[in-house]
Design brief:
The longest helix has 25 residues, at 589-613. The strands form six sheets. Strands 2-1-5-4-3 form a five-stranded antiparallel beta sheet. The protein contains 26 helices and 21 strands. Helix content is 46%, strand content 17%. Helix 16 packs across helix 18, helix 20 packs across helix 21 and helix 24 (589-613) crosses helix 25 (618-625). The chain folds into five domains: 7-101, 2-Layer Sandwich (Beta-Lactamase); 107-227, PAS domain (Beta-Lactamase); 259-422, P-loop containing nucleotide triphosphate hydrolases (Rossmann fold); 426-506, Helicase, Ruva Protein, domain 3; 530-639, no CATH class. The protein is of the alpha/beta class.
């Protein structure tokens, strides 16, 4: 036993040491010759020796021969001693014991205590509440912050079930969450509602994690508690504000503030129950199909079919068979009669998208449908009567196509009994905010997120961006951002690299590339929108400032020739200011106001001139100025033109 790693000793029936090994000598700093035949009183202090002797007597005098083990800690050198009765061949009994050095364990325990005290202090100082439970859900620890949140003291909470602090509904939520944590052994998050001791209703966000004992078995939970009441109330305010915004600026799913779109909504409402043909014009991505569906939904044909066909996606022969159908044997593979889209739309509305792409031969057949309300399927002599309203849409300039003999003028005027032009998104920036609200609400529901808004710098970028893809592009941009956003605010980093690159140029003041080119074209040749001219003038001023009035550098930066730059400088009346002192451009308000007055005056005079030439025929005036009649009416009202 001398080689045993722990201290071993044996005592005789008189409780005197009869054997000790070398480890015992080392642990207790004694010599075998000096300790054998001695008692505990010769080795330890009186109190420790008295304890040892009482335990020794209890073991040696027990009726059991073996199996009675007593552990005790002696008060020096951090040892635990295990003692037991040893059987012999005669009636005498011996007492054996092993002393284990636990100094390292004591050291670790002390460090753990200090660590626990340190973390307990941190937990007590935390802004969040902390709650620890055992495996039955009984609270074993709460910090001060949790007591403050629920309005109860520590003594009221410790030893109570965590499920009793909520009403029946929320208590059931807690129990379910607790059981799920117990089964899955993973973190869970839940929001519950409780009533404090003062009667205040709180919404608590709970992040609960499982805890485990030394054997890796589930021993309870540790939860981080956050008062989520303000966030819930803010969300309600945002939701209420958003709802009011939608109520005030929406029409059957179209959200707008701009006058142009409000006028279109009025036209939609007035024309919905008419059976006349309708032409919707506007760039791709502005929502022409959506508007056609809304008109169908509020019309007296809403219970009947709404059939859509894209005239630009199919070759002529296939488009004809799709529209008008065919009879059996009309061509190879026509093994049965097949009705077309006009037949399917009977009693309802047919939406002819991209009508400008329709081949000229088919336009003749469409004219007959409009004029005579009938047609013949391919390969058939049977005339089919049809009751259908036609809504057509195009992103082309049909007047230009008529001039090129690619579109029939008689078809154009038959389709255009009622028409409206949807402006591109860049011309209706007042609608950007409400469109963002609508898409945020839509994608929150789709992706189960709680995004509130876009960041200020993101919104500034969106206000400057031209959106060549219009509303469709805005929607796709936001959907991508939603996928990558894990907070409640969308930042520029959540958009694709193309937009981030444009944004970085925008931040550096290089406005030229935000919209891909320097030259900003208006929707008409004769009348350029004031806002666009001001944007271009501001770009000139900022670029010249950055280049210290060096026209060569400015031209390179703007990606235009020096001749074009000089022409634009003269166009906006900047040449005189540049000659006097370029620093005068730092205060541009006066120049902008003068320019605004000049542009408005020129525009007003142009409208008056054309009205005179057309004998006040607003329709012809609008055509000459290449604007719709609503825009003309709005401008006449703005300038007080009778």
């Amino acid at each position: 036993m001398d080689n045993f790693p722990e201290a071993v000793f044996i005592k005789d029936e008189n409780l005197k040491f009869s054997f000790i090994n070398k480890v015992f000598e080392k642990y207790f700093a004694v010599n075998k010759d000096n300790i054998l035949g001695k008692t505990s009183y010769d080795l330890f202090d009186y109190e420790t020796a008295r304890k040892f002797s009482e335990q020794d007597n209890k073991i040696i005098n027990s009726d059991e021969c073996n199996g009675l083990t007593i552990e005790t800690e002696i008060n020096f050198n951090n040892y635990i001693v295990r003692k037991f009765k040893l059987p012999t061949n005669d009636s005498k009994s011996l007492l054996g014991g092993i002393a284990f050095d636990i100094s390292e364990r004591k050291k670790l325990e002390n460090e753990l205590i200090k660590s626990e005290q340190k973390y307990r202090s941190l937990v007590e100082l935390a802004y969040e509440g902390f709650v620890k439970t055992d495996k039955e859900g009984i609270i074993t620890f709460v910090n001060k912050r949790f007591c403050e949140i629920v309005g109860r003291c520590e003594n009221e909470l410790i030893g109570k079930s965590v499920f009793t602090n909520a009403d029946e509904e929320n208590s059931a939520i807690l129990k379910t969450t607790f059981e799920n944590i117990k089964k899955a052994e993973e973190q869970k998050e839940v929001i519950i509602k409780i009533t404090t001791s003062k009667g205040q209703t709180l919404h608590l966000k709970i992040n609960a994690s499982p805890t485990f004992d030394e054997n890796g078995q589930f021993s309870g939970t540790l939860s981080l508690i956050t008062d989520f009441t303000k966030e819930i109330e803010l969300e309600k305010v945002v939701s209420s504000t958003r709802q009011k915004l939608f109520e005030n600026f929406s029409f059957h799913g179209i959200f707008c503030k701009s006058e142009a779109m409000k006028n279109i909504m009025e036209l939609m409402q007035v024309s919905a129950n008419s059976d006349c043909n309708l032409l919707i014009e506007g760039p791709s991505g502005t929502g022409k199909t959506h508007i056609a569906k809304i008109i169908h939904g509020i019309s007296n044909r809403r219970e009947k079919p709404f059939i859509t066909i894209n005239c630009g996606n199919l070759p002529e022969n296939l488009l004809e068979s799709e529209l008008f159908g065919y009879s059996k044997g009309a061509f190879t593979g026509a093994d049965r009669d097949r009705p077309g889209k006009f037949s399917a739309a009977s009693g309802g509305i047919i939406f002819l998208d991209e009508i400008g792409e329709m081949p000229i031969n088919l336009q003749v057949k469409l004219l007959r449908v409009i004029d005579e309300k009938c047609y013949e399927p391919i390969g058939s002599n049977n005339t089919i009567k049809v009751d259908v309203r036609i809504i057509a849409a195009t992103n082309k300039n049909l007047l230009s196509l008529i001039a090129e003999e690619k579109f029939r003028s008689d078809l154009y005027y038959r389709l255009k009994i009622v028409n409206f032009t949807i402006p591109p998104l860049k011309e209706r920036q007042e609608d950007l905010e409400i469109l963002l609200e609508d898409f945020i609400s839509f994608f929150n529901n789709k992706y189960n997120k709680n995004i509130i808004r876009v960041s200020d710098e993101t919104f500034r970028f969106l206000k400057t961006y031209d959106f060549p893809g219009n509303i469709r592009e805005l929607k796709n941009m936001l959907e991508r951002a939603f996928i990558f956003c894990n907070s409640n605010v969308i930042e520029m980093q959540h958009f694709s690299n193309d937009y981030i690159t444009l944004f970085n140029r925008f931040k550096k003041g290089n406005f030229t590339n935000v919209n891909n080119s320097f030259s900003i074209k208006g929707p008409t040749e004769n009348v350029t929108p004031v806002s666009k001219l001001l944007d271009e003038k501001e770009i000139l001023i900022q670029t010249l400032k950055q280049c210290n009035n060096n026209k060569s550098e400015a031209a390179i930066s703007l990606n235009i020739s020096k001749v074009t730059l000089w022409r634009k400088i003269k166009k906006y009346g900047l040449d005189a200011a540049l000659k006097e002192n370029f620093e005068d451009l730092n205060n541009t308000d006066k120049i902008l106001n003068q320019l605004l007055t000049k542009i408005e005056k020129d525009e007003m005079n142009k409208i008056i001139e054309i009205l005179k030439k057309t004998n006040n025929n607003r329709k012809n005036t609008a055509i000459i100025l290449k604007m719709d009649r609503i825009t003309l009416w709005r401008k006449m009202k703005k300038y007080g033109i009778k």
